[in-house]
Amino acid sequence: MRTCYSVAALIMLISSDLYAGSAIWGQEPLRAGCICSFSDLDRYARALSLQKAPSPPDLPEAISNLSYDDYRMIAFRPERAIWWNQSKPFWFELFHRGFVHRNRVSVSVIHNQSESESPSEQPVPFDPSLFEYRGPLADRSVPVETGFAGVKIVGQFPKADDGQEMLTFLGASYFRGRTANTVYGSSSRGLALDAGTDKAEEFPAFTDLWIVEPDQDEKTLTVLALMNSESVVGAYQFELQPGTTNTIVDVKARLYFRNTDCKIGIAPLTSMWMWGDAIEPPPLDKRPSVHDADGLMIDAGDDGTIWRSLCRQSYPSLSRFEVAELHGFGLIQRERRYSRYLDDEAQYHRRPDIWIQPKSPWINGTVELLELPAPHEGHDNIAAFWVPGDQINIGEPVDLDYEVHFRSTKRKEDGFLARVVRHSLTRNEDGTIDVQLHFRGTAIAQLSDETPVLLDLLTVRGEVLKQESIKTKSGWRVDLKISPIDVDDPVEVQLTLRDSNRRLSETWSGLCSHRVPKYQFPQVYTRID
Questions:
Q1: Which CATH architecture best describes the domain 1-167+195-240?
Q2: 444, containing H or E segment
């Protein structure tokens, strides 16, 4: 018979003195009473912002030098999950520290409020018996002050009979979710600081997590998180609403900056793109595409929708899109045919889109896209985030209110305008580039054969030698021949289809390079059966 430990039983096993909020980071706790609501956490975050940021604790010697393979030998025992087998719609497991997961995260449970009782907070103490240590770690003694690295939310998706992973918090301020019909893919973060600059990026971290105990018939789960770093303290509230094709994480946050001499990236997203449209796979690898997302989509309201196809240069590349009124942005896996990936293990055709939906439009800022070189598909090399145009001052709270959607289907709003469903690049020996774009959508499908389609075309660092639009059975195809000003620099292309009165398509944007980034380590890239 499996044994299920309640939070109270775990606390009896180990003293909870080690888990007094940020006291585990070596500073005196500033809070009075329990953290049982967002307002409680907000007061605590504001008080912490007046102090210097603490230094994160070192890893215990027993796990200080774990390799990737070593870390994989540590597994949480699923029967020890909090609320497992207690008729709850959600339960959660815990991640062990080690390898790259060096930060210690304090984890607590907020118990339900009844008519006669106030809500209460109980820390979840670290206990090595929660984990199975295998292989070379089987006889390793792990101290109780080790602590956790994060949490994994598990539960039942709508109409599902078994429990499945839904959402994880692991590493700095990273979190990622999935739907019932997808696997994990792109992820989100609480905040990005100095990403895509010549300064070292600062990674704010969730140091404390509080999971609110759900009622038996609850459809959502609430998680509170304290974020801390040298430049900022933040109070976050996440409300998870799992779905079959769209899982929503409602994010409410209030930030207090200790330092504003940094570039602030709001609602940052992280993904991976190695090859696909416009770049051939490395030798011996038969997979046509390897990526978690194939494009950045930006909903600029009345200014239309931008689709920026992802790519990869041999150097870090930063693209900026000024937006007067941002209605949303995301990293999208538009290509979902298995034949375009041929990977039964990674299942890239089942990676979810990730979409940021502000509760009200974000005004006058920039969506930035960072594309990095990477040695293999295990490295996240794509980032996208919103950089606000307004000045942020030290001590003044910054409020955020938005949704993160992990979805497997396109938005209803994207149904009318034609979309680029495929593009290709041909690099010619004379230095020119042939670009081919395939558009599909209701707006162009309804056009008569006599209606002319106009190309609203812009290029930077290149000259257009030829442009042609051709009606096909499924939409329109656009052929371009471009001569780069310098073969070492990519040509930036923007194209929108129009008729005489209106916009017919999203604006396609791409970096078209005559030089293909080399695969320096084919043996690392290639997975051969």
A1: Distorted Sandwich (2.70)
A2: helix 442-445
